[in-house]
Amino acid sequence: MTTNQNVVNLGDRVEASVTTAPLKNVMLCTRLLEQAMNRPAHLPGMVTFFGPSGWGKSFAAAYAANKYRAYYVECKSTWTKKALLLSILKEMGIQPDKTNYDMVEQISQQLALSGLPLIIDEMDHIVEKKAVEVVRDIYEGSNAAILLIGEEKLPTKLLKWERFHNRMLAWQGAQPADLEDTRQLSQLYCPDITIADDLLERIQRESMGVARRICVNLNQVQQAAYSAGTDQIDVKLWGNRPLYTGDAPRRKVK
């Protein structure tokens, strides 16, 4: 175990300001983390939020991290066990020790003494590198609330590690954006224009509920409103212009 001098004092940590909207997945993700944080002591403390790409999982995780001052890391495809540990310690503001064992001890101690949760985004990369056991080691050493975020098949992938899988308190699937989510996103990213419900419904439908595509379409609609010199736009004004669906345009054959 490392000495207490490596533990960061978070008493004066300033909570960052995150502009967000009360989206469905934001609430689901936040409640999931709260469930892990407020669990009885005899229950496991890891939870997983999973779903398709573009559904706003990372957006929701950023909000949850800000609300509860969680340590947050977003994994990369090139990361090894050591890279994960180094990234967490960097987020904690702790100078890393030399070995993986010592770094796990540093992280575990900081989580235990601070009482703050840990959020690991893009967990699929850690699964693919067969490095999930290092996360279990951190959990076992700290008993902290840990939120894992990944793609739709993450729960199935984790079945290969029974000891890890058995320490999961809850699983929560992300949901596609509905009309109310689309309206909230329009108010967040297009505050100076009013987009009528008929156009918001079309955006939601053609975006297939994918939050990232909805944001792309909202930007296109906003630019169209600017070009028309208006602060209000509906389906009639939008006309027959196409919306972004994620599909690449087909090549025209002469």
Automatic annotation (TrEMBL):
It comes from the Bacteria. Residues 44-157 form the ORC1/DEAH AAA+ ATPase domain. GO terms for molecular function: ATP hydrolysis activity. It holds the Pfam family AAA_22. InterPro entries: AAA_22, ExeA_AAA_ATPase_DNA-bind, P-loop_NTPase. This is ORC1/DEAH AAA+ ATPase domain-containing protein. It comes from Methylophaga thiooxydans DMS010.
